[in-house]
Amino acid sequence: MYSIMARQRKLHSFLLAVVRSIFQDMISMDSVIVKIMTFAQKLVSADRASLFLVDSRTKELYARIFDVSGDNDEVHEVAKEISRFPLGTGIAGHVAQTGESLNIPDAYEDDRFNRAVDQQTGYTTKSLLCMPIFIRGSIIGVMQMVNKTTGTFNKADEEAFATFATYCGLALHHAKLYDKIRRSEQKYKVALEVLSYHATCTEEEVRRIEASTALPHPAQQLQTFSYSPYSIGGDEQVVATIFMFKDLFKQELFDEDSLVRFTLTVRKNYRRVPYHNWSHGFCVANAAYAILKHSTGAFKPLEELALFVSCLCHDLDHRGKTNQFLINSASPLASMYSTSTLEHHHFNQTVQILQQSGHNILKNLSSEDYKQVLSYIKHCILATDLALYFPNKSKLKHHVDEGTFDPGKPEHRSLLQAITMTACDLCASTKPWEQQRKTVQVIFEEFYEQGDLEKAEGRQPIPMMDRTKAHELPASQVGFLKGICIPCYDLLSKILPGAEDMKKGCLSNLALWEELASNEQQRLEDRGETEAQ
């Protein structure tokens, strides 16, 4: 009785150690399996132990671990060479095929026994204890104990062995999972390396920009709120961006090569969608540049840096679709971020570019300043989500109306940064009429493309994204300017008087959109009367 209890305590202690090893020694799962096999072999007093796995593709068994206690390396290697055989062949093959456990007292008296290994190794198999290993109802392998040192395997051996087969299956399952995860990680690294190569500027592009330092027009034009960013294109926008960087910030802050690479790679990581592309990023960055030039001292140096970088990068890798579309279509991005899906992605893309070799334009900052700028950039990019604009505007407006706005308070400055980002993002609404109208046409083409996709998927798009309702565009713009843009610029100009021209431009465009909306309404009424006659 005492020996049985001692054996049980020893067994329980070992099984606890096995479980601990399974969860802690993922890298060396083979060693965990060997521990299990060795202990099982000693517990049932077997001379040798083997583990075979099922190859479901070839319908074969192959040795994962062969002859755990074998002393002769030569025997082990010979056995390995012949230890792949079809399911149904030999005792182990029969167990793998049928799922039944076998306790064979005399192997040579059993017709199912495969004598090939004994014949080639010179080893004599007498008794066998063989059990299947199940995972989720499927046989994944077979454990085999060979030659009990005293007599033959008994019922107690079978029960103990069954327990070890279960734990061995658990270890194998974890080993497979770990191997799958490890291979997935390696695939991910390779894919990331390939994507990084194709999403990073080339040396040829760098040399071309470094040789083209002259602006395509007088620098003063970049400071005007009426400036048309779309009047230049290609490398000219990159050159202008680098000029604005250098003009706003200390020359020694940036490494020239890093600045060129960063700007070029940012351009490359904007997708070729109708509106949310590189030209839009350049346009928004230019708006930030103009605001900063007309509002000297309104922002601290690190805030200015974060604002400009954020505006340039705020729509990186935009897919030309809204956050709601990504959620409705079960996009992987939507599963990663519960709120502000695209905005979180834009920030992460920004950080990824900064982490590319030779691209970190912030590397000359102190560690503390670096962290602060990244924090500002995240805040600023997330603020471009219009869902956050309304609460931000409400809070800031309350402070301005009550006369409690205090630029010395970090939370007030944070609200100002957020509203400034919205003002820059929507700057197309402040541009001269022809620029504004062309931009709106491009924006709505992107909207209509999303609407077309939604219809193809059996969903009804909102009117703004339904190209069959294109006649409602002027009225839609009137609502957009009145509800979002003008309140934004009105609030911003009260804090930053230098941004007053943005409000004026927006009001001017509103009057023209109202006229178009009125004309469209009259046209519809006239058509209705004609059809009624």
UniProtKB/TrEMBL annotation:
Residues annotated to bind Zn(2+) 1: H280, H314, D315, D425
Task: Name the residues that bind Zn(2+) 2.
Answer: D315
Give the co-factor note: Binds 2 divalent metal cations per subunit. Site 1 may preferentially bind zinc ions, while site 2 has a preference for magnesium and/or manganese ions.
Record's superkingdom? Eukaryota
Q: What is its EC number?
A: 3.1.4.-
Q: Which keywords, in A-to-Z order, does the entry hold?
A: cGMP, Hydrolase, Metal-binding
Hydrolase listed as a keyword: yes
Query: Residues in the active site?
Result: H276 (proton donor)
Tell me the ranges covered by the PDEase domain, including all copies.
199-520
Q: Which InterPro entries match?
A: GAF, GAF-like_dom_sf, HD/PDEase_dom, PDEase, PDEase_catalytic_dom, PDEase_catalytic_dom_sf, PDEase_CS
* UniProt cofactor(s): a divalent metal cation
Coiled-coil spans in chain: none
GO MF annotation list: 3',5'-cyclic-nucleotide phosphodiesterase activity; metal ion binding
Q: Where does AMP bind?
A: H276, N277, W278, S279, H280, D315, D425, Q477
Which EC class, in a word? hydrolase
Q: Name one GO biological process term.
A: signal transduction
Q: Which Pfam families match?
A: GAF, PDEase_I
Q: Which family does it belong to?
A: Belongs to the cyclic nucleotide phosphodiesterase family.
**What name has this protein been given in UniProt?**
Phosphodiesterase
